[in-house]
């Protein structure tokens, strides 16, 4: 629900440089609201047994919003809306998160090679009154070309797969493997701009 007065900025509760770049693309001013050292941010992203990707990404995004709201209340921050997001990759009903090491990154990419997978990104905005607006979920499909083992190994060695769901970033070197996408390019990057803009305007962000 819209607020009565516009806000000049939003808090971004994400360390992702890609999300920062995408907000800048929209012309949205933001300030970072990152987890404190005592917060276990990775625990929020743990997959529950039997959890489907769509349920998972929406749950994690909402949990990140709750954590960010608590962080805002506990700190000496100005009141403004908060933006959180979460991205996951799914294939064969399995969630592919961020790889822990090179072997896991290689295995994920080998699984994606020559096939289509789904990328889901959830976005949540907590308005300045502390109310979380309904979480929006962007669903896209990406088809990778067949990949030779040497090409996978070279990509893993570049370091780009780490810190990214599914072990790749579509905006980087992995673009050479992408045959086709169906959906939101910005959503695959980590922040679907159409859904994000709508939520920010509903929360009273002026941009």
Structure commentary:
This protein has one domain (10-202): Maf protein, CATH 3.90.950.10. 32% of the residues lie in helices and 21% in strands. The chain has six helices and seven strands, in the order E-H-E-H-E-E-H-E-E-H-E-H-H. Strands 1, 2, 3, 4, 5, 6 and 7 form a seven-stranded mixed sheet that branches. The two termini are 17 Å apart. The mean pLDDT is 93. Pfam families: Maf. Belongs to the Maf family. YhdE subfamily. It is an enzyme of class 3 (hydrolase). The record marks 18, 87, 171 as: Important for substrate specificity.
List keywords for this structure.
207 residues, seven-stranded mixed sheet, ITPase-like_fam, 6 helices, nucleotide metabolism, single chain, dTTP/UTP pyrophosphatase, alpha/beta, Maf protein
Briefly say what this structure is:
The chain contains 6 helices and 7 strands. The chain has helices at 17-26, 53-74, 102-112, 149-157, 185-189, 193-202; strands spanning 10-12, 30-32, 82-91, 94-96, 116-126, 136-144, 178-182.
């Amino acid at each position: 629900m819209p607020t009565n007065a516009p806000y000049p900025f939003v808090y971004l509760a994400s360390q992702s440089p890609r999300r920062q770049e995408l907000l800048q693309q929209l012309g949205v001013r933001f300030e970072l609201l990152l987890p404190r050292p005592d917060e276990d941010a990775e625990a929020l992203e743990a997959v529950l047994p039997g959890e489907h990707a769509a349920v998972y990404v929406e749950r994690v995004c909402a949990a990140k919003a709750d954590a960010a709201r608590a962080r805002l209340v506990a700190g000496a921050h100005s009141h403004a809306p908060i933006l959180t997001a979460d991205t996951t990759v799914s294939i064969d009903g399995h969630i592919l998160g961020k790889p822990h090491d090179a072997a896991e990154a290689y295995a994920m990419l080998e699984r994606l090679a020559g096939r289509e997978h789904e990328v889901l990104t959830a976005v949540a905005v907590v308005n300045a009154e502390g109310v979380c607006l309904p979480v929006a979920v962007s669903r896209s499909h990406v088809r990778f070309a067949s990949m030779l083992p040497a090409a996978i190994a070279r990509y893993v060695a570049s370091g780009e797969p780490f810190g990214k769901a599914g072990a790749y970033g579509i905006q980087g070197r992995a673009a050479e493997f992408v045959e086709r996408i169906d959906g939101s390019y910005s959503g695959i990057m980590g922040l679907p701009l159409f859904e994000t803009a709508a939520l920010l305007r509903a929360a009273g962000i002026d941009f």
